[in-house]
Design brief:
A alpha/beta (376); B mainly alpha (363); C alpha+beta (480); A: 376 residues; alpha/beta; 13 helices; B: mainly alpha; 16 helices; globular
Chain lengths: 376, 363, 480
């Protein structure tokens, strides 16, 4: 008996299963967004960005990918999104977004609500890059890119490459949310522009309470990178101590970084201990280098980095008035009881920094600068 | 007809049922209660649960081949046994219905956004009914095939999470001022560990399962370490303050990291979702096996397959009754508190009676 | 006894009766020293030379004592090696139909049955179903005696037992059980024999009938009984403790009981390079998974959750599908159906035309469909790959259910995405785990897990293999 009913039940259930493919939508029929730009225009929010334009060549050959710009305007995010939904041919697909661009104006207003929105959009990857651009996004996305497919890809590839080599910071949505929810710290966001057909990394924008408070230019950001980046690298030219005219190109990377915090005499003490490894890339004019030269060089490098760090920490205290480096995490980890009873934002402005930088020149590449002496 | 289960099969079944719904919310619940010292609370919870599971195993070992139904009749009499069985029946049924519902809700939120939840529940129940109609031996074999894959993927994902994490986020590891907080957090660790009371309904044979104690201690210890690993790795990536806001913690954190070196599989949450859904069938078949065992002892002359279909239909209807996800979570939370009775109080009573009346020397 | 006595009077009537009942029967009448001797046989299935040389000639040349009885004829006159005396009148028809020659001697209560069977049979040829690189190439053919000789020359143990039985009311096919008596578990033997006795069918034409009739259920999706075409693989299974069933008229022997891991084992893993054997075993398992799941994964990644792929891959996927009007599920199902059509057509065609079919298939499906814009090029690769992967399984009967289940999983993942895919895999896993082949679970060495057996299976090294697989419950555990 049960077998007969089983067959009937299966026959009845089967059409039920086949009638609904509620979530089914082919990827080429979706609207694939590549990059998003957010700006504040008067009282309304403007969404702009790029969406993929799929062109097919004849005969199944691989097609060139291109992107078209979209723009939509509305009150609050939902209004602007509704305006956007009214003009697209397929459902919104956010899984291929490469970067999200904020304008300076929008960054100055408050990006926390939008970050929360981004974190919870369905299908959106929380590992996309966030940047602030010098010009308004609607101008940014109209510019032509020569060395990449579209603006979003160019920005993402440029910042990613620099981050891998220690020249920039790559900030994802998840990292920013994590910083926002810590409450008493600020963070940096990469600051970019599109100029002469390429995306250009200009520096870092400092955010306090998710509002833009200042910009650290690329040339001055060595200090920031040595504090925050995973593998910071700095290439610089130094003059030899014995001969002012002899210039040496030195590449410095981070060996070890230790940050210790403590609370003494009602002041936060932050001890930063860096051990750097340097490598002599080449000499502008080859000449001998004595051991004293090298020692003096190490001190010069240390001083330079130390000054850069000091300068930027001072800026964070005086100008940004916010702990953009995230020292609060270390303090909370090492002195949890003291942290609970203080207001980190206020006390940070009076924090005392002890910075100690040690450099070792580990090798001189494949160059032996003292060879001439031996021949003679 | 049914052969006895090997050590390995019992262990993997326990693993799948404990990790059935446990590992999703572990970081959020434990970190909300005890912050960065969650490893300590979990360690203590592991030790407590090892002791409890030893007690349960001892009971099953002494009365070999019998389940709770039989030997509690010997120990405390028929009427109290019936009371026990009714309590267990309600407990298993609540888990069976509510966990399938909440799994379906989460799947609806993550990957199938427009599909009505009722259809996801329907498909789950059909597959669970199919598994259940085959008997405990088949369920044990399916778990045995599936659990090594689960362990491998979870360890891999934890390892990759740790590679993206920062040590500073999990400091302070232990702060003596918060020690009372860690103990209070034990309450939050009950829900992840529930599931071992199913062992009371699986008959153990002494010849096949000689080293069962060793295996079960190792298993609970391993699960404890796995939980600690999951919690600490998610905290190290996003920090405690973020973890407490995220419901399906591991999944949400996985969405935010991209392991570039793995190229095409750099987005790991797809893999995690596959493993997670497979866990649903294994764990739920075991919960419903508990229900079926109890019901089939009471109602003797109905065919097994027919009973399976009736129970699954009733569970399906009941699982649609709560209207919101919050209600479901609340029910599960209260059920887990009542789980203390299930795996601690009742076995403790039987254990004490066994020891006092020296039944274990007789058998 | 009296009415069995073939008197001369009802002698001729008996022969006439047999002539009427059995079409094509020939009878040779001989007069030897006042006795009338009839030789009855069917020429199509008899060795006529042997009859002339070994029965008729010595009888005609006999010049011994005039007292001729059936016993004397059998023991002193005819040359045929396989003879016996029989008394039962009713069995004469059966013996003649079986191809034996019956010698009736007048005034004798017994008659002689001589085995002069000769049927047309194929010579021993290379295996076609179970091909391998390094392995002996003597395959079974349809003749039971040749098959038995192929097994007997490999296993010269006295405990090799061969049990005959006859199945099929009209075909009376000989079915033979071959096993090692002191190794194989007698439970399997008795169970198979019992099942064979219970079979009541018209005829057994191929071992596939036996396979279906002795299985537990009405219709099985996965094969519980393995097939073997080569004699060395059959002997390897017999040595392990399994039972080999040979059916007269079928060139495929049955191996009972066979589990999941044994289906993925081909002979040359044992004969060839060790490391390559390990690698290829994993490869075969992977190929099984690929053939089952690859099309469904394509559907999921295209239609439901493209966000599991990195951004560039999504765009590549989208651009490859831009000119295709059909949705992904329909496309995948259509391509799979076309591939199944090709496969079936290739089997049935004579050899001369099959090469043109393959060209048609490649051109039509591969190039033209993509060029016309009906399917996307990526899908063609995927479907072809999953089809190739299904050919790597050593025992082809195992890849047949995979072809069917592929469609089930495709439908489920087309309706429910990733969730449906995982549920489909669960259904397949539950189905596989629930099959038992004569009491041995189908997933025997994986679940319940036995480390030694798995190690032996993966290494496949005859040097290290000391014990027989434990799930077969053999009487003799150690290989001597």
């Amino acid at each position: 008996m049960i077998n007969r009913y089983k067959n009937i039940v299966i026959v009845v259930l089967l059409p039920l299963l086949l009638t609904g493919c509620w979530d089914y939508k082919d990827v080429n029929k979706r609207d694939i967004i590549i990059s998003i730009g957010v700006d504040q225009v008067d009282n309304s929010v403007e969404f702009t960005g790029e969406a993929a334009k799929l062109m097919s060549a004849k005969g199944g050959e691989s097609s060139m990918m291109a992107a078209y710009e979209y723009i939509s305007l509305g009150k609050e995010y939902e209004g602007s999104r509704a305006d956007y939904d009214a003009e697209i041919p397929g459902p919104y697909f956010a899984g291929a977004v490469r970067c999200v661009v904020f304008s300076k104006k929008f960054g100055a207003k408050d990006i926390e609500p939008y970050m929360n929105r981004l974190y919870n959009i369905v299908g959106f990857r929380n590992s996309v890059l966030i940047v602030i651009s010098e010009e308004a996004p609607r101008d940014l996305f109209r510019r032509k890119i020569e060395n990449d497919i579209c603006v979003g890809y160019a920005i993402d590839d440029t910042v990613k490459y620099l981050d891998d080599n220690g020249g920039a910071l790559y900030k994802t949505v998840q990292e920013i949310i994590s910083d926002i929810q810590f409450r008493s710290i600020g963070y940096f966001i990469p600051y970019v522009t599109v100029d002469k057909g390429t995306a250009k990394y200009l520096g870092l924008a400092a955010m306090k309470d998710s509002k833009l408070v200042g910009i650290v230019k690329n040339g001055d950001s060595a200090g920031v990178l040595f504090l925050l980046s995973k593998q910071p690298t700095n290439e610089g030219v130094f003059a030899s101590s014995s001969n002012e005219k002899k210039l040496l190109a030195i590449k410095t990377t981070l060996g070890k970084r230790r940050i210790k915090t403590s609370y003494k005499d009602k002041n936060i003490n932050i001890d930063i201990d860096l051990k750097l490894k340097s490598q002599l890339q080449y000499e502008y004019n080859i000449g001998p280098l004595s051991k004293q030269d090298i020692k003096k060089l190490e001190e010069t490098i240390s001083t330079r980095i130390k000054d850069s760090i000091l300068a930027v920490t001072k800026r964070s205290q005086k100008e940004f008035k916010s702990d953009v480096f995230g020292f609060a995490r270390y303090f909370k980890g090492e002195n949890p009881e003291v942290y609970k009873s203080m207001d980190w934002n206020k006390e940070y402005q009076n924090a005392i920094f002890h910075i100690n930088v040690d450099t070792t020149i580990v090798n001189t590449n494949l160059l032996d600068p003292n060879a001439e002496k031996q021949i003679k | 007809m049914e052969k006895s289960l090997t050590n390995r099969q019992i262990v993997v079944m326990l693993y799948s049922i404990i990790l059935g719904y446990g590992d999703v919310n572990v970081p959020k619940q434990v970190a909300s209660a005890s912050g960065t010292g969650s490893w300590f609370s979990l360690l203590m919870a592991t030790i407590i649960f090892i002791l409890i599971s030893c007690m349960i195993t001892y009971l099953q070992y002494v009365y070999e081949g019998k389940t709770l139904y039989e030997y509690s009749e010997i120990l405390v009499g028929k009427s109290i046994t019936n009371l026990f069985l009714v309590i267990y029946l309600i407990y298993f049924s609540v888990y069976f219905t509510m966990v399938v519902r909440i799994y379906s809700e989460v799947i609806n939120l993550i990957i199938l956004n427009k599909t009505p939840v009722i259809f996801i529940c329907l498909i789950s129940y059909i597959v669970i009914a199919y598994a259940l109609s085959k008997g405990i031996n088949v369920i044990a074999r399916v778990c045995e095939i599936y659990v090594p894959i689960n362990i491998f993927v979870i360890i891999l994902i934890n390892f990759l999470l740790v590679s993206k994490g920062k040590y500073v986020n999990i400091m302070p590891l232990f702060s003596t001022s918060d020690i009372m907080k860690y103990f209070k957090a034990l309450q939050a660790t009950i829900l992840p560990f529930t599931g071992m009371e199913i062992l009371l309904f699986i008959p153990i044979s002494r010849t096949e399962n000689k080293d069962i104690f060793k295996y079960i201690i190792l298993l609970i210890g391993f699960i404890g370490i796995l939980f600690i690993d999951i919690v600490e790795s998610t905290i190290s990536v996003v920090g405690v303050e973020s973890v407490v806001f995220l419901k399906e913690t591991v999944l949400s954190v996985l969405k935010g990291i991209d392991i570039y070196s793995l190229d095409i599989i750099r987005r790991l949450d797809g893999l995690y979702i596959v493993i997670w859904i497979m866990n649903l069938v294994c764990a739920m078949s075991l919960w419903s096996y508990g229900i079926i065992t109890i019901v089939s002892r009471k109602v003797k002359n109905v065919k097994y397959n027919f009973m399976v279909i009736i129970i699954v239909c009733i569970s399906f209807i009941v699982s649609q009754m709560p209207k919101t996800m919050d209600q479901v979570e609340l029910i599960l939370q209260y059920n887990s508190y009542s789980g203390v009775v299930m795996f601690f109080v009742i076995p403790a009573i039987l254990f004490i009676i066994t020891k006092v009346k020296k039944y274990d020397k007789q058998v | 006894m009296g009415d069995n006595m073939i008197e001369e009077s009802n002698y001729i009537s008996k022969v006439e009766e047999l002539k009427n009942n059995i079409t094509g029967m020939m009878s040779r009448k001989l007069y030897i020293k006042d006795k009338v001797i009839y030789i009855l046989y069917i020429p199509q299935i008899s060795n006529r030379d042997s009859i002339s040389e070994n029965i008729i000639k010595p009888l005609l040349q006999y010049s011994g004592t005039p007292i001729i009885s059936a016993g004397l004829v059998m023991s002193s006159i005819i040359y045929v090696d396989d003879v016996f005396l029989e008394e039962d009148d009713n069995k004469i028809t059966d013996y003649i139909m079986q191809g034996k020659s019956v010698v009736l001697v007048s005034d004798s209560s017994q008659y002689i049955v001589a085995n002069t069977l000769k049927v047309e049979k194929r010579s021993i040829q290379s295996p076609e179903v179970e091909a391998a690189v390094r392995s002996p190439r003597d395959a079974f053919n349809e003749n039971l005696d040749s098959n038995l000789s192929l097994i007997r020359y490999r296993i010269k143990d006295s405990s090799l037992k061969i049990d005959y039985s006859t199945v099929g009311i009209r075909t009376k096919t000989s079915v033979v059980l071959v096993y090692l008596q002191d190794v194989a578990n007698s439970k399997y033997v008795t169970e198979i024999k019992k099942k064979l006795e219970q079979i009541k069918v018209d005829g057994i034409l191929e071992s596939g009938y036996i396979q279906k009739l002795i299985s537990n259920k009405n219709a099985t999706l996965f094969p519980e009984i393995g097939i073997s075409e080569r004699s060395d693989s059959a002997c390897a299974n017999i040595l392990e403790g399994r039972i080999c069933i040979l059916v007269d008229g079928s060139n495929l022997a049955l191996i009972v009981p066979k589990g999941f891991v044994a289906f993925l084992d081909a002979g040359d893993d044992h004969y060839d390079n060790d490391y390559l054997g390990i690698f290829i075993k994993f490869f075969r398992f992977l190929a099984l998974i690929i053939s089952l799941t690859l099309s469904s994964l394509y559907v999921i990644l295209v239609a439901y959750n493209p966000e599991f792929l990195p951004s560039q891959y999504i765009l590549v996927l989208a651009t490859s599908r831009v000119q295709v009007p059909i949705n992904a599920v329909t496309e995948a199902v259509m391509m799979e159906v076309i591939l199944e059509l090709l496969r079936e057509a290739n089997l049935r065609l004579p050899k001369q035309i099959s090469s043109s079919i393959s060209i048609v298939g490649t051109i039509v499906i591969g190039q033209a469909a993509v060029y016309a814009g009906i399917v996307s090029p990526l899908l063609v690769i995927i479907v072809a790959l999953s089809s190739i992967a299904s050919y790597t399984v050593a025992d082809y009967t195992f890849s047949n259910p995979i072809r069917l289940l592929k469609f089930v999983i495709l439908f489920l993942s087309g309706t429910f995405g990733m969730f449906g895919f995982v549920m489909g895999l669960n259904i397949v896993a539950i189905k596989i785990a629930s099959i038992t082949s004569f009491g041995v679970p189908f997933t025997a060495t994986i679940a319940p897990f036995n480390y030694k057996d798995i190690k032996n299976y993966i290494l496949s090294n005859v040097v290290l293999d000391e014990e027989r697989p434990s799930f077969l419950n053999t009487k003799d555990k150690k290989r001597k």
